[in-house]
Specification:
heterodimer; A: 108 residues; mainly beta; 7-stranded mixed sheet; B: 116 residues; 6-stranded mixed sheet; 4-stranded antiparallel sheet; 47% strand; globular
């Protein structure tokens, strides 16, 4: 099983700031099968990034993904009020699919 | 419009059983592998189970192996999760999802509470 470890657990930031979230895999994620999700309270997760760096439909370009092998990053170039949420990475390289434990981005 | 609508959640005693359903519409259900993902309120997302598009191949998280069974009825565009020998730690919101980037669809979830 590929274990995904996200850091930090919580980020306290202000609108307009740049955000960098980390996701480290316990073994290499092949074929760039790594996604990022955003989840707000009471809602289902929303796909932001797939294939490490591809934005899903309708996702603004302030969101970007990068990385390879075992280390991946989600960057939000400039935080908007609607971006305060929990973010999860997820690998779909092999079963069982696994998620990171999440990073909460909260308003400072 | 794509819709995944879960149903069947509720309160059940430890050791009991429950069947969740997920009705799909607005996309080609028969072309997708389908998954169940659960989330304890306030906690993270945990993958539970998957089934291939034809309904022949399945996989489960270790925590539910032998107790849960995933199935689908492609004629009815419906996914199921049969849950037996339920434990308090199975309490969670259960989501059905395609987990198929970029065509990634999720339901709104159904709450299962296991408690006496």
């Amino acid at each position: 099983e590929i274990v995904l470890t996200q850091s930090p657990g919580t980020l306290s930031l202000s609108p307009g700031e740049r955000v960098t979230l980390s996701c480290r895999a316990s073994q290499s994620v092949n074929n760039d099968y790594l996604s990022w999700y955003q989840q707000k309270p009471g809602q289902a997760p929303r796909l932001l990034i797939y294939g490490v760096s591809n934005r899903a439909t309708g996702i603004p370009d302030r969101f970007s993904g990068s990385g390879s092998g075992t280390d991946y990053t989600l960057t939000i170039s400039r935080l908007e009020p609607e971006d305060f949420a929990v973010y999860y990475c997820q690998q779909y390289d092999r079963s069982p699919r696994t998620f990171g434990q999440g990073t909460k981005v909260e308003i400072k | 419009e794509v819709q995944l609508v879960e149903s069947g959640g509720g309160l059940v005693q430890p050791g009991g059983s429950l069947r969740l359903s997920c009705a799909a519409s607005g996309f080609s259900f028969t072309s997708y592998w389908m998954h169940w993902v659960r989330q304890v309120p306030g906690k993270g997302l945990v993958w539970v189970s998957e089934i291939d598009s034809g309904g022949t191949r399945t996989a489960y998280a270790d925590s539910v192996e032998g107790r849960f069974s995933i199935s689908r009825n492609n004629a009815k565009n419906t996914l199921y999760l049969h849950m037996n020998s339920l434990r308090p730690e199975d309490t969670a919101v259960y989501f059905c999802t395609t987990l198929a980037a970029p065509r990634d669809y999720w339901g709104q979830g159904t709450l299962v509470t296991v408690s006496s």
